[in-house]
């Protein structure tokens, strides 16, 4: 992963954002999480250490981090956005049963972007590819 928590915090401080222990904890949790957590999952994990922190605090800080370009919000048409601190070009495999999202590396599909631009006249800014199926745990449960 590219950016460290400290680099991200410095980037925020340089834009005038005050660094609170809660912000540090949320950012650290996201940068060390491989699960693309929802705001509620972050809240459940951090609330024992920060009993005064509300779900609204989590949401507000996630918005701040997205706007600062430190994390990416993944929306899939339901109400539970997931958050990813890995800003590198990568793709996601998503389990249709439990909702687990797993990163996988694949060469960026820039030829698809070029084809879309040529065919539609769009100035393409990026794309998102998702693979759907069943994770190993759910597959095992369905076949037994």
TrEMBL record:
GO terms for biological process: negative regulation of DNA-templated transcription; regulation of secondary metabolite biosynthetic process. GO terms for molecular function: DNA-binding transcription factor activity; transcription cis-regulatory region binding; zinc ion binding. Keywords: Cytoplasm, DNA-binding, Iron, Manganese, Metal-binding, Repressor, Transcription, Transcription regulation, Zinc. Binds 1 Mn(2+) or Fe(2+) ion per subunit. Binds 1 zinc ion per subunit. Its cofactor is Mn(2+); Fe(2+); Zn(2+). Gene3D superfamilies: 3.30.1490.190, Winged helix-like DNA-binding domain superfamily/Winged helix DNA-binding domain. One of its GO terms (cellular component) is cytoplasm. Fe cation binds at residue 127. InterPro entries: FUR (IPR002481), Fur_C (IPR043135), WH-like_DNA-bd_sf (IPR036388), WH_DNA-bd_sf (IPR036390). The keyword Transcription applies. Signal peptide: none annotated. Zn(2+) binds at residues 95, 98, 135, 138. It is found in: Cytoplasm. Belongs to the Fur family. Manganese-dependent repressor that controls a regulon of oxidative stress resistance and iron-storage proteins. May act as a hydrogen peroxide and organic hydroperoxide sensor. This is Transcriptional repressor. It comes from Paenibacillus montanisoli.
């Amino acid at each position: 992963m590219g950016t460290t928590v400290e680099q991200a915090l410095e980037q925020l401080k340089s834009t005038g954002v005050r660094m609170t222990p809660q912000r540090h904890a949320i950012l650290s949790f996201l940068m060390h999480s491989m699960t693309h957590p929802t705001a509620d999952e972050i809240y459940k994990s951090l609330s024992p250490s920060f009993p005064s922190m509300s779900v609204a605090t989590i949401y507000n800080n996630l918005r701040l981090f997205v706007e600062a370009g430190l994390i990416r919000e993944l929306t899939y048409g339901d109400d539970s956005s997931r958050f990813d601190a890995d800003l590198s070009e990568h793709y996601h495999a998503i389990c249709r049963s439990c909702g687990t999202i797993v990163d996988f590396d694949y060469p960026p599909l820039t030829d698809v972007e070029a084809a879309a631009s040529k065919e539609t006249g769009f100035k393409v800014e990026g794309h998102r590819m998702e693979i759907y199926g069943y994770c190993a745990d759910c597959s095992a449960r369905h076949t037994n």
